[in-house]
């Protein structure tokens, strides 16, 4: 099914976890698919910590529907990762080992207390924070359980004795997002997706119909369906008619990947640990090979992806107060990426006002989690013309009123 022409059934713009998952699924249906990205997996998707949690980004719009979508995608992960590992021949590090949200009283901690500002303006109110999160999530019917600091340390002995109170999430997984992206590239190739290591410089339209895309090497790819999955850059594509893609906010996040130098059991937690340390948030997500991702900042800095000394310092300082063994670990790498955030914090998935142009972007803080369900729904939409109920609230058209184009 390789195409020597520049004509495809589907062109996917952007090869992050969202675009790659869609291209793979559509390719499996036997359609001729092209995916265009100068560096597939090189966007925020490989920076992500890989938490597959039940927590929701709070949003005034469609909160319940988003929670439902999170749950659908989390439930799809075991089969998704097994299939991907089989096809790609590589491990993606999926584990359904649970998560813990814990408060740590840093004043009584062993490490030096530095004067980093509190993220939510308070200090030392971790217990109140944990209780409020617990109440909110329990009210949504999520399977959460309050546990004592003793129970917490029995489950995860690497957690500091200064832990005060915790919430246990038994139904939570994690994955290695870098490996996930690499495996998805292999899976796409296995179903003969044409991967073009180029940038799309223009969307080609005729009237209100999408016809194809122009690449930075001057080639044109024609297709009946174009999927725009270019993350935080999606709305910047030249040639997009006005009021088709609501501008996205690039919300920067920095992470540090560390590795245990000892072969010691309990050095790295087996569950995802999210912590509240003196009003600041930090997490430690276990990964394959004794590694863990420590994250993350939330910065409204435009399209800057530099890694800063202050952020790395703060993350490692706070993470060491929660999991003291981190202080002795090796730094594997540092990274920063841009979360694609829509105006109402809810993804944009589905048909646009331009015929043949579909959007799959705006996944914010949960794009890795939402990749399987997004890919499934977009594939159904393109191959069968059916809008899955799960994505109906996320229509990109919700921001605009339809006009007759005159
Ligand atoms: C620090 C941090 C931690 C995170 N942790 C988690 C987590 O634990 N769990 C979770 O679910 N989510 C997490 N996220 C969020 C997650 O990373 C994103 O929601 C997700 O990766 C978005 O995927 P994407 O494919 O839409 O975007 P991207 O991965 O950014 O992919 C977009 C792609 O489009 C390409 N592109 C852009 N413009 C063009 C063009 N003109 N032509 C061709 N290609 C183009 C880019 O090169 C890029 O590869 C985290 C994010 C950050 C920053």
Q: What can you see in these coordinates?
A:
The protein is α/β, with parallel strands linked by helices and 406 residues long. It has two domains: 7-91 and 176-247 and 343-399, FAD/NAD(P)-binding domain (3-Layer(bba) Sandwich), CATH 3.50.50; 99-170 and 250-341, D-Amino Acid Oxidase, Chain A, domain 2 (2-Layer Sandwich). Helix content is 26%, strand content 27%. The protein is built from seven helices and 18 strands. The protein has helices at residues 17-28, 63-88, 126-139, 149-155, 177-190, 309-322, 367-384, and strands spanning 7-13, 33-36, 51-52, 99-104, 144-148, 163-169, 173-174, 194-196, 200-206, 209-215, 220-228, 249-259, 272-277, 280-287, 291-295, 330-341, 348-351, 357-361. Strands 1, 2, 8, 9, 10, 11, 17 and 18 form an eight-stranded mixed sheet that branches. Strands 5-6-4-13-14-15-12-16 form an eight-stranded mixed sheet, with helices on both faces. β17 and β18 form a beta hairpin. α2 (63-88) packs across α5 (177-190). The chain starts with 6 loop residues before the first strand and ends in a 22-residue tail after the last helix. The mean pLDDT is 90. The site of flavin-adenine dinucleotide has 42 residues, from α1, β12, β16 and α7.
């Amino acid at each position: 099914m390789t195409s020597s022409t520049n004509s495809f059934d589907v062109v996917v713009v952007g090869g992050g976890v969202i675009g790659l998952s869609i291209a793979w699924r559509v390719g499996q249906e036997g359609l001729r698919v092209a995916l265009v990205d100068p560096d597939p997996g090189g966007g925020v998707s490989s920076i992500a910590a890989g938490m597959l949690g039940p927590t929701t980004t709070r949003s005034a719009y469609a909160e319940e529907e988003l929670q439902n979508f999170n749950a659908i995608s989390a439930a799809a992960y075991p089969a998704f990762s097994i299939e991907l590992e089989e096809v790609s021949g590589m491990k993606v590090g999926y584990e359904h080992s649970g998560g813990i949200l814990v408060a740590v009283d840093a004043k009584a901690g062993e490490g030096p207390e530095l004067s980093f500002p509190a993220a939510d303006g308070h200090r030392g109110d971790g217990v109140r924070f944990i209780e409020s999160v617990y109440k909110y999530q329990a009210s949504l019917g999520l399977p959460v359980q309050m546990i004592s600091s003793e129970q917490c340390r029995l489950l995860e002995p690497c957690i500091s004795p200064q832990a005060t109170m915790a919430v246990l999430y038994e139904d939570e997984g994690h994955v290695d997002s870098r490996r996930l992206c690499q495996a998805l590239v292999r899976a796409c190739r296995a179903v003969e997706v044409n991967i073009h290591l180029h940038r799309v410089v223009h969307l080609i339209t005729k009237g209100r119909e999408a016809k194809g895309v122009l690449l930075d090497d001057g080639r044109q790819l024609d297709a009946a369906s174009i999927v725009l999955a270019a993350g935080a850059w999606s709305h910047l594509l030249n040639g997009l008619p006005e009021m088709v893609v609501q501008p996205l906010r690039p919300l920067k996040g920095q992470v540090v990947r560390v590795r245990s130098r000892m072969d010691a059991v309990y050095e790295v937690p087996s569950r995802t640990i999210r912590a509240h340390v003196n009003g600041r948030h930090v997490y430690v997500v276990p990964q394959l090979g004794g590694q863990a991702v420590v994250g993350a900042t939330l910065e409204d800095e435009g399209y800057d992806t530099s890694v800063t000394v202050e952020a790395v310092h703060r993350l490692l300082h706070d993470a060491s107060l929660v999991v003291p063994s981190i202080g002795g670990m090796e730094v594997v790498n540092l990274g920063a990426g841009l979360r694609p955030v829509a105006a109402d914090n809810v993804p944009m998935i589905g048909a646009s006002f331009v015929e043949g142009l579909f959007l799959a972007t705006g996944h914010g803080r949960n794009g890795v989690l939402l990749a399987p369900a997004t890919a499934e729904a977009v594939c159904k939409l393109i191959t069968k013309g059916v809008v899955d109920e799960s994505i109906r609230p996320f229509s990109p058209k919700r921001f605009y009123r339809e006009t007759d184009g005159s």
